[in-house]
Amino acid sequence: MVADYWLLHAGKVDVPAMYDPHGRYRYWNGINWRAAVALLVSITPTLPGLINNINPKIPVGNASFLFNIAWIYGFFCGGGVYLVLSKAFPAHETFMDHAILGEEVDATTASLESASQHEVDVKEKEKDSSA
């Protein structure tokens, strides 16, 4: 998420679309395959250390060291793999010229609602005056 938001999109995201199940961030059937690959690549090498941590009788060699720094390894390895895959196979529909925040959408919706309420009030006044 850090690599995508800060490095790839530079903070230019469509916040309301994040909550739309059919929005621009749906990717492929709701799965961002770039993120899934990055997750698998960053977690898999630390699994022997996890096994050793659960059962110390199972020897794993130096893999236990990688497990001890799994958070930093996963952060940089996962972020790097995600950036490389996203540059090689970009999801063009997610790139934007500027960020769309929820406040902008709320303000637009509120102005549309007040405009439609005004139309209703005008029609009621016209109906009352003609009667």
Number of helices: 7
State the end-to-end distance. Answer: 62 Å
Weakly predicted, low-confidence segments? none
Give the overall form.
elongated
Helix content: 55-70%
* SSE topology string: HHHHHHH
Structural class: mainly alpha
What are the defining features of this structure?
single chain; 131 residues; mainly alpha; transmembrane; nucleobase transmembrane transporter activity; Allantoin permease
Question: How would you portray this structure in words?
Answer:
By secondary structure, the protein is mostly helical. It has two domains: 2-97, no CATH class; 101-131. It contains seven helices and no strands. The chain has helices at 2-8, 15-18, 33-43, 47-54, 63-68, 70-88, 102-130. Helix 1 (2-8) crosses helix 6 and helix 3 (33-43) runs antiparallel to helix 6 (70-88).
List the helices and strands and how they pair.
Blueprint: H1 2-8, H2 15-18, H3 33-43, H4 47-54, H5 63-68, H6 70-88, H7 102-130
Helix pairs in contact: 1-6, 3-6
Task: Report a brief summary of the structure.
It is a multi-pass membrane protein. With 131 residues, the chain is mainly α.
